[in-house]
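Hi there,

I know you've been waiting on this one. I reran it after we fixed the sequence typo, so this is the corrected version. Both the input and the resulting structure follow.
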Amino acid sequence: MVQVIVRDNNVEQAMKALKKKMQREGIFREMKLRKSYEKPSERKAREKAEAVRRARKMERKRVEREGF
């Protein structure tokens, strides 16, 4: 559960913090995915592409860390 404290009646700042937390949690992305039906074949393809993207990102970070 995402919780934000409003200080000094500063709702704008609280909304900004809430949006940032929701972005980090992936709530906006999940809402977008659930907006319409996704065929199982499309879901598999999307998940596979995401896994490839994550693996490439991890590999880039590893190479950067090790200095190759």
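Quick highlight: The mean pLDDT is 94.

Best,
R. S.
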